[in-house]
Amino acid sequence: MPISRLKHYLDDHNIKYVTIKHSPAYTAPEIAESAHIRGTELAKTVIVMIDGKMAMAILPASDKVDLSLLKQAAGASKTRLAREDEFKDKFPGCELGAMPPFGNLYGMEVFAAEALAADEEIVFSAGSHTESIRMAYQDFEHLVQPRIVKLTPAG
Question: Sign of the C-alpha dihedral, residues 97, 69, 33, 106?
């Protein structure tokens, strides 16, 4: 989903957002530094396999997904990180590793960390390594309808 398609989706739903342009950044810490965002404010999208089905885990960029907690939250028997070759073609128009956390647009279930739900805003990669979007968390939750779960020991 190119950034323009994501913006059209948000515009079509009358969502207020801010586009943050930054120098190329490929990891969550680089994005946070480049865009002058605290790592706890930036959400990262992790592609996971839950009982053989691809899903998204969305969590603060400074955290790591705890697959055993995700397995428990999903009521699954097996969870693992998806391999790049499994998802590289699932996000047309997006740069690899810059997928926005809108699993609903890709037919994927979304699991969001409780820690994100506690914030007023969410900032995430918008399909490229040079643009991020900041919007109200409440609007994100309304559009995506993620399952709010414990993904890290801290939340």
Answer: positive
Taking every pair of Cα atoms in the chain, the longest distance, rounded to a whole number of angstroms, is 41
Residue 124 pairs in a beta bridge with 43, 133
Name residues whose C-beta falls within 8 Å of residue 11's C-beta, 6 or more positions apart in sequence: none
Entry pTM: 0.91
* CATH code, domain carrying 52: 3.90.960.10
Q: Provide the token pair at 23.
A: 């120098």
Local confidence band at 1 (pLDDT 50, 70, 90 cut-offs)? very low
- Looking at the structure of the chain, the number of domains it has is 1
Radius of gyration of the chain measured on its C-alpha atoms: 14
What are 136's strand-pairing partners?
A: 121
User: By C-alpha distance, which of 80, 97, 123 is closest to 27?
Assistant: 97
pLDDT tens string 39-51: 667 899 999 999 9
Report the sign of the C-alpha dihedral through residues 121, 44, 17, 109, in that order.
Answer: negative
